[in-house]
Amino acid sequence: MTAPPHRQPRRRLVSRDHVRSLAMIVMGVVVVTACSSGTxxxxxxLTTTPPTALTKVAAGFYxxxxxxxxxxxxxxxxxxxxxPGTGPHDLELDPRTVTxxxxxxxxxxxxxxxxxxxxxxxxxxxxxxxxxxxxxGASLLPVRAQLQGTQGEVDGEELxxxxxxxxxxxxxxxxxxAQTIHDTLVxxxxxxxxxxxxxxxxxQTELADLSADFASGLANCTSRVIVTSHRAFAYLAERYDxxxxxxxxLSPEAEPDPRTLEAVAQAARAKNVTVVYxxxxxxxxxxxxxxxEIGATTDALSPVETITGSDLExxxxxxxxxxDNLAALVVGLGCG
Length: 336
What we know:
42% of the residues lie in helices and 10% in strands. The protein is α/β, with parallel strands linked by helices.
């Protein structure tokens, strides 16, 4: 996709009298500047150079927004379309947000039904707004079937064509997202290229360190199976030689039925699983019920898509949340 050049403000027509007035003002500024700079102990010369305009970026949800902020640094302003603490998949854009979207310079999003309303809004934008589908060219994994014998829906989403959308949970793929954002921003704002290069280098180094810690931390484990109620960790599992088993019927809205619990218990015994992973929002009573029934404990894994406003204020980032995930996996899988 060829990104259009950075848009400049539209020029306004002015009268000749207005032009004369402006010219007189400018001449006055020049005279004052010259006098000031030539006087010993005088103030520094005035500058009429305006600050660099920020490139307006809209991001579909948190991991994309963070990558845009880290790469773009002081050359961009980033608007996360998904409010903190809410899931991106069911995002509903209000009319004001759709209107504001037409005024940004670039939108980064995921396609194939991940955020239908964002896709619809992007489809209605003019050619002046650059839109970048971060799934384009990505190697996607198919959605695997839920654990046999479990009933109900799995807490996880599917893309068109039965593909898994959660590419960002793999630090290496998150790094590729940052690279695409960098390349797009450089095309839009070549004057900020050094800033973008520095931002990308810093962020990719952080992600490379994170990936190395996952590889070493999960190198030697008693079990290599992640049993989870949210089918969001297939890309993480593929990267670090783990197996994800997704469970239907384990959601915050309903107690699991006996057949589901028995199927989970059998899988836990067969796969040497001692921990079942939920998201943070799962009520403690449900976790305790599952743990008691299947003879395992429970812990939380975050897909880093619903990070809350209070977490952000406390300094949480993609890397810090993923390190919490690593710590939970090391304990749950018996890694040492």
